[in-house]
Specification:
Shape of chain A: globular
Oligomer: heterodimer
CATH class of chain A: Mainly Beta
Strand order of the largest sheet of chain A: 1-2-3-9-8-5
CATH superfamily of chain A: RNA polymerase II/Efflux pump adaptor protein, barrel-sandwich hybrid domain
Number of strands of chain A: 9
Structural class of chain B: alpha/beta
CATH topology of chain A: OB fold (Dihydrolipoamide Acetyltransferase, E2P)
Strand content of chain A: 25-35%
CATH architecture of chain A: Beta Barrel
Largest sheet of chain B: 7 strands, mixed
Largest sheet of chain A: 6 strands, antiparallel
Order of helices and strands of chain B: HHHHHEHEHEHEHEEEEEHEHEEHHHH
Strand order of the largest sheet of chain B: 1-7-6-5-4-2-3
Strand content of chain B: 5-15%
Number of strands of chain B: 12
CATH topology of the domain at 105-342 in chain B: Aspartate Aminotransferase, domain 2
Structural class of chain A: alpha+beta
Helix content of chain A: 10-25%
Helix content of chain B: 25-40%
Largest interface: A-B, 15 and 14 residues
Distance between the termini of chain A: 15 Å
Number of domains of chain A: 1
């Protein structure tokens, strides 16, 4: 299975995309397949600061509830308001309209330490070996 | 929809009524005159329905329901065992059913004796010093247990420093919820390759900021923790308390005592292990048993013995306070004691042995049809994985739905979280070999259908009153209020308002 190469990944199945110095964050298609239908996404307020690997929100699916982890440290500059009325976007377009938050990174070097799509594919293979 | 399945308020109408009552033989006075200053409604929309229609309504609802008196209910972690009817008979005796909580100690010696004897027997079964019977459920028991742990740390001057509670990644969701409720922080500890506690991960997580570890034993995969003595020793070495989630006590009764395993306290789900009904939302009971050093912190009041008299002791300055009105859900406590006394010591240990035997029988038989991620002998329950069915386009959810067509309640699915496509099966000791074989045959047939005609599973259930429900839509478009049929417009507005408030603190 192919995962997009224009984003970086975490071991917790978030993706991060760098655009104009900001980092957009969502969850991977693997995560949405595992979760099933997403019914609610709880996102932080704009201006909130997070440390890398700390929970920034919660995604609720029919069968389970999972924490969302910040891929890198930074301050929230935007959240996807659409998800409050249409959480299905996360399932339909996990790398596009289903994005969750946009972070202003504290240190862009952290971004370069995230997994590449190759690393992420390898991680999933190992987990299913 | 049949007539009976409409709400009562949608049935009948003016003039429909039950038994005629004799005419009022005292002067009628307006309510506003009797309750001066009270804010009274001017109208009250009660259903007006005839007695036969009311009876049919509730009988119809009762036959739609699946329950342990109707069929097999292998819901893992929930211990859906038979509820012996003698317990209900005893709890209905007037001296028990009509006992009044304000009657005073002298007039309530029998009721106090029930609470006292239940506390003593639970303490003996679990290996602890004392018990509170106040908490109304297992989850409240967890919260009360953590409150006592916090009080203990505070009494030792360590309340500020110890803020974390370690919880394994296989834990029940109530554990982190209870931790949050008392203001502690949850730290998840990854399980080892055998799905039991990983001592290295535990050691790494234990330091002087940890207030407690919370563990379920056997764990949520139905596996006994082989290193449990070392786990509790490590917790104590780090100055933390060891809390046992008693959800799986049905595997241990008469065989091992949590107090002897090094735990400091636990809650007991009497509706699981001690056969009280899993009522429709209650009332329940989740007594908490504690070691001697935690006894001063028990909720008030506590039953104490003075010669042959029992009294409520309210003078407990170090108590965490009261956690339930009066003395807990007394009728449930009476049922639990009846269960314990009718089984006796040898009977109770046979309960656990048979529960373990039944689970292992099903596990060995079903491992031929489904993936079994951990092949060790299980305790009272086991976890299969439906991941092998994915290549046929079938998920665990489809297996669960198809089981309903065989008159069986589905097992717990998608829990524990560390097993993909999990199916968690707990048959309990009260099922016959015949019943277990019927369930196994249904599961085997479903596995065959998944290979040969997966559409049967994807469309299931077909024999239930409602077919497959759209769970995603039900959760996305919340409808939490009944509204008068025909007044749908106001419902849309109310729904939109609900969406704004739900889940948003």
């Amino acid at each position: 299975m192919g995962y997009p190469s224009d984003v970086r990944y975490t071991r917790e199945h978030e993706w991060a995309r760098m655009e104009n110095g900001l980092i957009t964050v969502g969850i991977t298609s693997y995560a949405t397949e595992q979760l099933g239908d997403v019914v609610f996404v709880e996102l932080p307020a704009i201006g909130k600061k997070f440390e890398a690997a700390k929970p920034f929100g919660v995604v609720e699916a029919v069968k389970t509830v999972s924490d969302l982890y910040a891929p890198i440290s930074g301050e929230v500059v935007a959240v996807n308001e659409e998800l409050s009325s249409n959480p299905a976007l996360v399932n339909q377009e996990p790398y596009g309209e289903g994005w969750m938050i946009r972070l202003k990174p504290r240190d862009t070097a952290e971004f370069n330490q995230l997994l590449t799509n190759r690393d992420y594919e390898k991680l999933l293979e190992e987990q299913h070996a | 929809m049949s007539l009976e399945r409409r709400l009562l308020i949608e049935q009948g109408g003016p003039g429909h009524r039950g038994p005629a009552l004799p005419a009022c033989d005292v002067p009628v006075r307006p309510l506003a005159e009797l309750l001066r200053g009270a804010r009274l409604r001017t109208a009250l929309e009660f259903p007006q329905v005839s007695e036969p229609e009311v009876v049919r309504h509730f009988i119809e609802l009762s036959v739609l329901n699946h329950h342990i008196d109707r069929g097999f209910y292998p819901l893992g972690s929930c211990t859906m065992k038979h509820n012996p009817k003698i317990n209900d008979e005893l709890a209905s005796l007037p001296g028990i059913a009509l006992a009044h909580p304000l009657a005073g100690d002298d007039a309530s010696q029998g009721a106090l004796r029930i609470i006292h004897d239940l506390s003593r027997t639970l303490a003996e079964i679990t290996g602890f010093a004392a018990v509170t019977t106040q908490p109304a459920a297992g989850a409240q028991g967890e919260a009360v247990g953590l409150m006592m742990i916090r009080a203990w740390h505070r009494a030792r001057g360590e309340g500020e420093r110890r803020r974390k509670v370690l919880v394994p990644d296989s834990a029940h969701g109530t554990n982190p919820a209870s931790v949050h409720l008392v203001g502690y922080e949850t730290v998840t500890v990854a399980s080892g390759s055998e799905a039991t506690v990983d001592l290295h991960a535990l050691r790494a997580a234990l330091d002087d900021s940890v207030a407690a570890i919370m563990l379920t034993v056997p764990n949520t995969l139905g596996l006994f923790e082989p290193e449990i003595l070392e786990v509790t020793r490590l917790a104590h070495e780090a100055g933390a308390q060891a809390y046992l989630d008693g959800a799986n006590l049905n595997a241990l009764v008469g065989l091992a005592r949590p107090g002897d395993l090094g735990f400091d306290l636990m809650h007991i789900n009497v509706h699981k292990t001690f056969s009280t009904p899993h009522g429709g939302g209650g009332p329940g009971a989740g007594p908490v048993a504690v070691a001697a050093h935690l006894e001063p912190f028990l909720p008030v009041p506590v039953v104490t013995e003075h010669g042959d008299r029992l009294r409520w002791d309210h003078d407990r300055p170090r108590s965490v306070g009261r956690v339930h009105s009066f003395y807990g859900n007394f009728g449930i406590l009476a049922r639990a004691l009846a269960y314990i006394l009718t089984h006796g010591e040898s009977g109770l240990s046979r309960v656990s042995r048979t529960a373990i035997l039944n689970a292992n029988y099903l596990m060995r038989r079903l491992m031929a049809s489904y993936d079994l991620p951990h092949e060790a002998h299980c305790m009272h329950e086991f976890v299969l994985s439906g991941r092998g069915l994915r290549k046929h386009g079938v998920k665990t959810l489809d297996v669960a739905k198809r089981l309903l067509d065989f008159g069986v309640h589905a097992p717990t699915v998608y829990f524990p979280l560390i097993v993909e496509e999990a199916l968690m099966i707990e048959p309990t000791e009260t099922e016959t070999l015949d019943r277990l074989d019927h369930f196994a045959a249904a599961m085997e047939r479903i596995a065959r259908e998944a290979r040969e005609s997966p559409k049967i599973l994807q469309d299931a259930p077909t024999t239930t009153p409602n077919s497959r429900l759209d769970e995603a839509r039900a959760a996305r478009e919340l409808k939490l209020r009944w509204s008068v049929p025909g007044r749908e417009a106001s419902v849309a507005a109310a729904r939109s308002a609900e969406r704004q408030t739900i889940g948003r603190p």
